[in-house]
Amino acid sequence: MYLPVISELEPIARAAGAAILSIYRQPFEVEFKQDESPLTSADKGAHEVIVRALASLTPDIPVLSEESDAGVMQARLGWSRYWLVDPLDGTKEFVSRNGEFTVNIALMEEGKPVWGLVYAPVLDKLWYGGAGLGAWRIDEGGTVAIQTRPHEEGQVWKVVGSRNHLSQATLDYLARFGDMEKGELELISMGSSLKFCIIAEGGAELYPRLAPTCEWDTAAAQAVLEGAGGSVAHLDGSPLRYNKPDILNPWFVAKA
């Protein structure tokens, strides 16, 4: 089975990041899709960079991106192996200019991510890995292996949550782990797939997502987290599956 080599994929992610930052550093216009989610020329530019580069690197592996057209969205239902890409995960963070957005690239096999890369252009940090392969972070200090740190009894739960989508259902779910007002839970608000990466490198232990996401939002970061020893599953514990007829994910929990 083909597995990516980071020396081949890192330049693609960084090129997409450069395309995003070229827009981020100047005034830009915001469009809105049918679901009212924002869209910018940075999303489109990063999409073009990644799709073109992946087609050159692995011409036999098709690419599904959040910005793919309807024809690709239909064709992907017949794919068992493909790249799943979110060229700019966290467009709301991009629009608000808080830096908490990422480039997500995942290799999918038979309905699950086997390898993933998450790159944060503003932070200039990159995470990559896959289940059974390990996980790593690349930053100004070099490349280091990362690993989750499961919760220890008696310690405060460190929970990551969405900056824009912290639903009442999520708060109700968290109540079973402790009382936030009593300091039994520490909530770290963060945008995009960075939430998975924080868990993967041991900075938090839990990320319940009881609000909408799409498959391209989670695949790459799930691979990184699983490579670091964590897990992502439905609320009933069953695995998160991909390439479903409905591209929306069900509610899930990511854990160290």
Structure, explained:
This protein is an alpha+beta fold and 256 residues long. It has two domains: 6-145, Fructose-1,6-Bisphosphatase, subunit A, domain 1 (Fructose-1,6-Bisphosphatase, Chain A, domain 1, 2-Layer Sandwich), CATH 3.30.540; 157-255, D-Maltodextrin-Binding Protein, domain 2 (3-Layer(aba) Sandwich). Helix content is 29%, strand content 29%. The protein has seven helices and 14 strands. The longest helix has 19 residues, at 6-24. The mean pLDDT is 92.
Give unreliable regions as ranges.
none
For the largest beta sheet, what order do the strands appear in spatially? 3-4-5-6-7-8-9
Q: How is the CATH topology of the largest domain named?
A: Fructose-1,6-Bisphosphatase, Chain A, domain 1
Q: How many beta-strand runs? A: 14
CATH class of the largest domain: Alpha Beta
Give a short account of the largest sheet. Answer: 7 strands, mixed
Number of helices: 7
Which homologous superfamily in CATH is the superfamily of the largest domain?
A: Fructose-1,6-Bisphosphatase, subunit A, domain 1
Distance between the termini: 27 Å
Subcellular location: Cell inner membrane
Pfam families: Inositol_P
Binding site for substrate: 66, 88-91, 217
Family: Belongs to the inositol monophosphatase superfamily. CysQ family.
